[in-house]
Design a protein that fits this description.
single chain, two-stranded parallel ribbon, IS701-like_DDE_dom, Transposase IS701-like DDE domain-containing protein
């Protein structure tokens, strides 16, 4: 999706990074690793019942 936004011209160099938000249950650190090199910031909610 991020690469699609860039290819469609919806994001340009100098724009703010794209905020990618994950709910609890998703592996936000893993997604941040997989998305490295792209103009994204990853925000993940953590479970509080552990």
């Amino acid at each position: 999706m991020v690469t699609d936004l860039i290819e469609m011209g919806r994001w340009h160099f100098g724009d703010r990074d794209i905020l990618v938000v994950f709910d609890a249950g998703y592996d936000a650190p893993r997604m941040a690793h997989l998305l490295r090199g792209l103009p994204v910031e990853v925000l993940g909610r953590m479970r509080s019942d552990w």
